[in-house]
């Protein structure tokens, strides 16, 4: 659905923060060559956290913040909360469907389709956080948040894994991996592993916690009876405390994106809160907006560009061209023709990804000038 809203009424800092996040997501998802990637642009091998590992939780955090600003007025003026929940369910279904479409395209082999994924996780987190926002008193958010994180810690570290006999946090033998193989089966998990899924069933629970943390921070930003300086101070403080708790928890429950551990939720969520507070102070409070437009154009159409940026490389790969006597996809042909001969392997890979970012920026800028937002 395409709309042309008044962009002046949006929270600019949130759009900037979302834009930075989704641009970074596209950058790390589209290197010119997967065999040559600079270390900060790769995920941690297992435990630990690189800058790339922060991108997805930042986006889910933003989902939570956005729910507060998108649904507050509707919640206050609606007598039928069931209608709001139904609307959230419909949006989640569309997001989930788009994720499945990307998994299926271009061969549409339902026997091996990966059921879960990035857009699917966004859909699930959005729905549950929206329901919590609509139905639960904000004062109870902290109980839900810590209940989820402590509960997940207990599940992962105390419950013995069937067929293994003990609780563990290893790639293929942890409880989440076992559950993915049981329910999704190896045909419908992440194709790079076949035995576990980084967006698996059990780890979706703490991912909802990430969105819930965004709900709580969004509630602070939305307060009308609190000074801006107090809002920023609170968010900075809570963000810093979350980072500290995450680092301490890491000693016994390691920070791990693939498992979406509770320490990871605290650490990444804390950094996201600090980042948003900084953007809010600079942009919405101090009024420094001249540098923001390149990021805003990504932020206002984030889901659209994420979906399209995943689809276009697949389409290019279907177009076959000749490269030194070998038939290759158009994506490979472009990279080998324009980047490989002119850069070192790592710089060629990075240059290809940056070019992709710039092309999409131009498209999004044209949409932004026409006040076009594609609402999913």
TrEMBL record:
UniProt entry keywords in alphabetical sequence: Membrane, Transmembrane, Transmembrane helix
Record-linked Pfam families: HGSNAT_cat
InterPro entries reported in the protein's UniProt record: HGSNAT_cat
TM segment ranges: 54-71, 92-108, 114-134, 141-161, 200-221, 233-252, 264-283, 295-316, 348-368
Boundaries of every Heparan-alpha-glucosaminide N-acetyltransferase catalytic domain copy: 10-224
Entry-linked PANTHER family: LD22376P (PTHR31061)
Protein name as it appears in the record: DUF1624 domain-containing protein
Organism from which the protein derives: Pedobacter cryophilus
